[in-house]
Amino acid sequence: MLLSLTIHELAVVKSLDLELAPGFTALTGETGAGKSILLNALGLALGERAGADLIREGASRAEVILEFALEAAPAARRWLEENDLDGGDSCLIRRTLAIKGRSRAFINDRPVSLQALQGFARHLVEIHGQHAHLRLRQSSAQRELLDAHGGHEPLLRQVATLHRQWHEVQERLTQLRQHEGDQSLREEFLRYQIQELEAAAVEDLDYDALVEAHTRLANLDKVLSTARGQLEAVYDGDQAAADRIDRAAQELEIIAEWAAEFREPAELLRSAQIQLEEAGHSLRRNLDAIDDDPGRLIELDQKLALLHDLARKHQTSPPELAAKLSQMRQELDTLSHQDRLIAELTAQQERISERYREAAARLSEQRREQAGLLASRITELMRELGMPHGEFAIEVHTDPGATPRKEGLDRVAFLVTTNPGMPPRPLNKVASGGELSRLSLAIQVACIEARSVPTLVFDEVDTGIGGGVAEIVGRRLRELGKSRQILCVTHLPQVAAQAHRHLLVSKETSGRESQSTVAALTAEARKREIARMLGGVTITSQTLAHAEEMLRWAN
């Protein structure tokens, strides 16, 4: 259950530390006192999206902290263990909003995503809003209530998974069939392009070597003239460097006979002469090996031009043409075997469809079984809530041949009659506003009884009722409070008087600033608050006596 609620700098709440207790707790106060902000804070901490506009004026950040006891919440304990967030017998949820920056969420002081927080929170708290009866008119909401009451979640997940698989195969089949008409044209075009790339031998292409060879031939005249000139200079010419070095070495060798220190430079010159002669031989060999073929240069020019044209055509680079060829071959192979692929996918879809319909049939059976039980319980509660001739029915219409849907093959309809002898009709065509409010409460209570969420929050769900019916609603909430924690925002004294505990929300204004506060009422203060709810501005002794009597009867 929820042990405490702490709020800092949120809307009209500057700072609030609220301790909560088991049983049924009523929250009352004047309109505009700030009851809604407490529910907003609770919703925020449980994962609802919110913007920086909720931050109190003048503050840079807002924070909401919830502390829960987990003894009566085994599902929440399991979730924490599975997500490595276990903190023992209690749990802290913290949510922050900042003027600059995004909101952040924490479970046991470890950051979590908003989606994770929402998944965890559904094991701890359910909030039933004052406009829940409006959503009851929707067929989807009626189906969801029936499924929640029946505990159909595992089977619903299985049906939804099979639907997703069926839908994915269906999308692939649709795409393939859309292209069937253009298949032959596309195949012909692909074959032409493949032949074109094969003729250009792009698979064996060494583009860098081709560019290098072309560059060499394009500069061959410069290469030949430079190499020949240097051969003359080094070895073949009349004034070749090798001959001049030879003469220099000879001269030094002569004088070395008289001056030994010149022997070393003479030897070095002889080494240089040998190197020059080897360089000359190498130059001659390379020149002799050069094939001066103008036709080869033309051939390389044409080859490179073809490759660049193909690259532009396929919007790629010449080195990537081989990969493009492989890709087109794969596409052609896919198109060539498209009929076989369609047949395989069709068979796969039929297998999935068969499994889907088996699971959907089990879900339909469970829904019909639960529909009778839930309808009986809602009928019983309707009669308690001032509709003595009320009859409630739930119809489950199944279309076995319908296209698979993620929620199954059923249409769920809530039917009701409040007059004897009249057949049940769709809920949104029969019930008046006040009746719809009571019906909504009966449905919510019936569905809650089958679930194990430890904390339930009701936000003015008693709107549209009064008198004896309001007292019955209060008694029902008090009864629920024996097995779980109930928090109820109400304007009805008959409901508030039935609570085990009473909190008063009030707003104080000083200068230009307003602040909401929450206080637990003593027995005397509670009597005065019930009297205020009964009598308005002027509280008489008779009103106080009435309030005291209501509290005494409730206890």
Write the layout of secondary structure elements.
Elements: E1 2-10, E2 13-19, E3 24-28, H1 35-45, E4 61-69, H2 74-82, E5 90-98, E6 104-107, E7 110-112, H3 114-121, E8 125-128, H4 132-135, H5 139-150, H6 153-178, H7 183-199, H8 207-218, H9 220-236, H10 241-255, H11 263-289, H12 294-313, H13 321-336, H14 338-384, E9 391-398, E10 410-417, E11 425-426, H15 427-430, H16 433-449, E12 455-459, H17 467-480, E13 485-489, H18 493-496, E14 501-510, E15 513-520, H19 523-535, H20 541-554
Parallel strand pairs: 3-13, 3-14, 8-12, 12-13
Antiparallel strand pairs: 1-2, 1-4, 4-5, 5-6, 6-7, 9-10, 10-11, 14-15
Can you summarize this structure?
With 555 residues, this protein is of the alpha/beta class. Helix content is 55%, strand content 17%.
List keywords for this structure.
6-stranded mixed β-sheet; 6-stranded antiparallel β-sheet; single chain; Rossmann fold; 555 residues
Could you characterize what this model shows?
By secondary structure, the protein is α/β, with parallel strands linked by helices. It has helices at 35-45, 74-82, 114-121, 132-135, 139-150, 153-178, 183-199, 207-218, 220-236, 241-255, 263-289, 294-313, 321-336, 338-384, 427-430, 433-449, 467-480, 493-496, 523-535, 541-554, and strands at residues 2-10, 13-19, 24-28, 61-69, 90-98, 104-107, 110-112, 125-128, 391-398, 410-417, 425-426, 455-459, 485-489, 501-510, 513-520. β14 and β15 form a beta hairpin. α5 (139-150) crosses α14 (338-384) and α9 runs antiparallel to α11 (263-289). It is elongated. It starts with a strand and ends with a helix. The mean pLDDT is 86.
